[in-house]
Amino acid sequence: MLEVADLRSGYDGIPVVAGLSLNVREREFVGILGHNGMGKTTLLRTLIGILPATSGEIRFQGASITRAPPHRRARIGIGYVPQGRGIFPGLTVRDNLRFAAVAVGRSNDLAVILAEFPRLVELLDRPGSALSGGEQQLLALARALIQEPKIVLLDEPTEGIQPSIIEEIVDLLKLLRLRRGLTILLVEQNIDFIKALSDRVLLIQKGAIVREFATQDISDAAAMGDFGKIAG
């Protein structure tokens, strides 16, 4: 579904993603692990088009999207949940969802998405700023999924949220994988979360993928944050 070849990007002439290549198959959940500053968020920002690629290629379902603007990538089926959630704090939950749907030409009927995110039903008239961190993350996921994406790019979805909602997100994403045939590329440092969801895990160092391994092979060293030992 997604093919990335020798991708390079960065900020103000400073390279961050440095010749990175990866592939994600349809209905696959792929995790990316790495220390802060290794290029994880920069990679997702480049894949969605917020940050331009300086070289290399991104292909989605066989077609090159390397130079496509973010709105076109969203319309062809790439969803994005940024680190920090990216919701509109001054809009209600209802309007956050409707805005996301209309932005890509989808129906703003909320019935389907609310059936998948029942916790949001009682929050529809609350502004995004009034939600807890976990509720904001659920809203961010719902905003992405109301656009009916084929693949979702998730950036640190467990950051700053309570364990009960982390478990809810795991269960929800597993269900949506079965129900929608969802594909996910997940950047995360929560080892338990990435192990619960991912089919395989990629290790990123200095802007490049240096190793791929099966989820069950993530070592105790990785769980302690010593990613260098897994790469050895």
Task: Describe this entry's structure for a reader.
There is one protein chain. This protein has nine helices and ten strands. It is globular and about 45 Å long. The longest helix is centred in the C-terminal third of the chain and has 18 residues. The strands form two sheets. A six-stranded mixed beta sheet has the order 6-7-8-3-9-10, with helices on both faces. 34% of the residues lie in helices and 26% in strands. It has a single domain, classed as 3-Layer(aba) Sandwich (Rossmann fold), CATH 3.40.50.300. A hairpin with a 2-residue loop joins strand 9 and strand 10. Helix 3 runs parallel beside helix 5. With 232 residues, it is of the alpha/beta class. The mean pLDDT is 90.
CATH superfamily: P-loop containing nucleotide triphosphate hydrolases
Low-pLDDT sequence parts: none
Query: Order of strands across the biggest sheet?
Result: 6-7-8-3-9-10
| Residues in β-strands, percent | 25-35%
| Helical fraction | 25-40%
The counted number of beta strands is 10
Number of domains: 1
Order of helices and strands: EEEHEEHEHHHEHEHEEHH
Labels describing this entry:
34% helix; 232 residues; alpha/beta; Rossmann fold; 9 helices; 10 strands; 6-stranded mixed sheet; 4-stranded antiparallel sheet; 26% strand
Present the secondary structure layout.
Layout: E1 2-11, E2 14-24, E3 29-33, H1 40-48, E4 55-60, E5 63-64, H2 70-75, E6 78-81, H3 93-103, H4 111-116, H5 133-145, E7 151-155, H6 163-180, E8 183-187, H7 191-197, E9 200-205, E10 208-214, H8 220-223, H9 227-231
Parallel strand pairs: 3-8, 3-9, 6-7, 7-8
Antiparallel strand pairs: 1-2, 1-4, 4-5, 9-10
Helix pairs in contact: 3-5
